[in-house]
Amino acid sequence: TNFKAHELLIYDDNDISKRIFTRDQLLVSGILDGEKIHIIVNHWPSRRGGEARSRPKRIKAAKLNKRIIDSLFSIDPYAKIITMGDLNDDPLSSSVKDILN
C-alpha cells in the first residue's frame, strides 16, 4: 500500500498572495482481493459564505480530483478508482456533473 497527499491550492479572489487553506486530497493505492485499486479521499471546501460564492473553490477541488484520476488512467486505462468523501456538492452541481462527469 502506498499513499500521496495532493495539495489543493486556493487563493483569495481579492488578494492572490493570500492562500486559503483547505484539505488536501489523499490518494491511497493498494491491493484488494488480488487487484490493484486506487482510492481518492476528499473533503472539498464548504459552502460557507453561500453556494455561489464558494463554488469556485469546489470547482478547483474537482479539477484537482480529475487530474489525479486522469493521471491514473494514463498509466492504466483499466484502473479501478474510487473517489469518495464529502464533496459539499450535489451530483448535479457543476463540480461533479461537468468536471468529474
Automatic annotation (TrEMBL):
One of its GO terms (molecular function) is catalytic activity. InterPro entries: Endo/exonu/phosph_ase_sf, Endo/exonuclease/phosphatase. Coiled coil: none annotated. SUPFAM superfamilies: DNase I-like. Gene3D superfamilies: Endonuclease/exonuclease/phosphatase. Residues 17-100 form the Endonuclease/exonuclease/phosphatase domain. It holds the Pfam family Exo_endo_phos_3. This is Endonuclease/exonuclease/phosphatase domain-containing protein.
